[in-house]
Amino acid sequence: MGFNCGIVGLPNVGKSTLFNALTATIQAQAANYPFCTIEPNTGRVAVPDPRLDMIAKLGKSATIVPTFLEFVDIAGLVRGASKGEGLGNQFLGNIRATDAIIHVLRCFESGDIVHVEGSVDPIRDAETVETELMIADMDSLEKRVVAAEKKMRGNDPEAKAQLAVMQPVLEALRAGKPARTVKVAPELKAVYDGLQLLTAKPVLYVCNVEEESAANGNSQSARVAEKAKAEGAVSVVISAAIEAEVAQLTDPEERKAFLESLGLEETGLARVIRAGYGLLDLITYFTVGPKEARAWTVHTNATAPEAAGVIHTDFQRGFIAAEVIAYEDFVELGGEQGAKAAGKMRLEGRDYIVQDGDIMLFRFNV
Known about the structure:
The chain is an alpha/beta fold. Helix content is 43%, strand content 19%. The protein contains 14 helices and 12 strands. The strands form 3 sheets. The protein has a 6-stranded mixed β-sheet with strand order 2-4-1-5-6-7, sandwiched between helices. Strands 3-9-8 form a 3-stranded mixed β-sheet, sandwiched between helices. The protein has a 3-stranded antiparallel β-sheet with strand order 11-10-12. Strand 6, helix 7 (219-231) and strand 7 (234-238) form a beta-alpha-beta unit. Helix 4 packs antiparallel against helix 5. 36% of the residues are buried. Residues 27-38 have low confidence and may be disordered.
């Protein structure tokens, strides 16, 4: 199961610096985790989760296998991208292929780095990118609505469902609101998802600030935080320059000392990765044994058989039951045996909704 986040932004906002720091992080993880750089602009990075280390310690596991996210560095957008300006078509096509958008916004002044718009204004920059995406969505929907209306004359039920989704979304876009602001009935969700709209994707704003503001942000990042809150979105403050430096430090203690000297408890990248994971509405469950402790990714509200299917389709097909221990019980009682002895291991059936942090063992028969 692969999930990816496209890193977007105007030129010279720190987007590629952020991606390069991620890539260096991937390489730094190579000693502990399997990894891959899929293409020059795509990398897969482990999701930081201290729970996995604790589970592995209690389970005396020989290896640790985290869960991963893919990050895609997408070519910088310019005004007119929706009409093919710059690398417009490639840019829009690359975004369409991602599950979520990480929007890097420049929140720092620098005489050495020219801003494509001539001044630093992250709100304007965010609106520039979103406007291009909305125009592209409008162009796409206007053509589809015409085609669906023709089919409706023949009482086509599929066209009726499509119009029930497309028309309110098109109205929102024309009013300057992204597709994700439109509430869609549950029975029409599949139709909505099938439209593959650019502005339907969840967005994480990453505020790239100067080094001095990495811990608490600055006035520009505060503006972005307000915008994100109003949209029901999320924002994270980082300093791409600091992340690039940290990524070069291979010694964990040296890294820790460097971060502490800047008033930081963890890297901004760790926050970005976790926020991207949450943005996709994902949760983690774990399996543990002497050979390995492993994190697995499922969507929120996944059932036990669906979680089993992430390991192998046979597990889902032949699902019988799941032995489940809550993470807190597993740690408090010293691992699986302690949890069993205290009656904290539960046997759950097909309807069980997986909770974040569950330690699970599946019973199946095929």
